[in-house]
């Protein structure tokens, strides 16, 4: 609601209210306006009413969309309204606008002229990237974004013309798109012989389908549908990295689905890569179900609750180790692909140091404050007492996980799929179930045998991973010849 106070014949004070603060005070904004002498007396009332409407919009919406708005203010609100663009596209537009704000950001949108934009382009052409001047096509992309903002202002009848459309631009360098021949594509794939399997699958699909990078990164195994003796690939999503927001997933660039029929040789390679991963995941899940079912078979609510809470804590404490391992595997793969095995080995050893530090920290908590840790999730004294024993047993797994994670990063990074599969089966099924049966039934340790079986299940995989690393065979591994 607005109130108007007449201070003189042509001077008025406008006050607009917009709710109340938490302490009960009214939120309001006041402004004194002076009606220009060019406005006749009979038009003063209409002028003031228009000023009130503009000020109400400014208070309610946070800004006033008129010619007095600066380009930076208008562009920021324009960008916030662009819901049709993908997050990565909006982030790209925002970066471009941040670059042009120093030149035209403070100029009122009604005062922007073609000469101002030409001066902006002249400054942009002075930039260098990696020691080279930016391309004219890149410079004109900035103008395209500015033009989109000004076109929106014209559409809203804030300006009469779009000055960006009135600039005579030089021709851009036309680059002919390089399309490899089948022989060149084969030669390129052969050059990936030492790369991790993820990269081989990525480039194989990129060459065969022509999908964009974000579309390939968003693929799931459920997108591959078998239809008799052929496979249909459906591309329906895209992923991108947005600064400050991480990985974002949305629709494809044109919002449409794409379908591809994969040939038998392509499908054979993908199946070779995918089946071990899927099988390993299923068997690991089965082993965890078996462990939980076996613990519950003792019909002891204290044991069951301790296992439930302890398993959650165990996974939580290993999150840090897993995060370091994942990053390490990517770095190892990059270094091996760049023919820098020494650096890949150093990355693995540094990873081992980090994971051992994480394991030591988790173990210290299990020794010093195990009861306090369990008390966060339960107030049952019996569960907390048994939880002390559970956590101290899990110290064995923390350290073996640290070793497995660090050296398995090398196995993953060099693309040794079969060894990674074998380690996963040993860890998730053979050792976990086998040792649990040995301790619980053969050695008559009961439910504590189950806890010890789970804790010791990673010792053998740790030995195998470490043995592979110190053997040095990963330095000369040829992935496509296996």
Give structural notes.
By secondary structure, this protein is mainly α. The chain has three domains: 2-61; 71-166, Orthogonal Bundle (DNA polymerase, domain 1); 280-481, no CATH class. It contains 16 helices and ten strands. The strands form four sheets. It has a three-stranded antiparallel β-sheet with strand order 1-2-3, covered by helices on one side. It has a three-stranded antiparallel β-sheet with strand order 6-7-10. A two-stranded antiparallel ribbon has the order 4-5. β4 (128-129) and β5 form a beta hairpin. It is extended and about 105 Å long.
CA(first)-CA(last) distance: 77 Å
| Overall pLDDT confidence | 81
Spatial strand order of the main sheet: 1-2-3
Q: Spell the H/E element sequence.
A: EEEHHHHEEHHHHEEEEEHHHHHHHH
Q: Could you say which structural class the secondary elements and strand pairing correspond to?
A: mainly alpha
Helix content: 55-70%
Report the C-alpha radius of gyration, rounded: 33 Å
Number of strands: 10
Number of helices: 16
Sketch the major β-sheet. Answer: 3 strands, antiparallel
Q: Could you say which overall geometry the principal axes of the C-alpha atoms support?
A: extended
Strand content: 5-15%
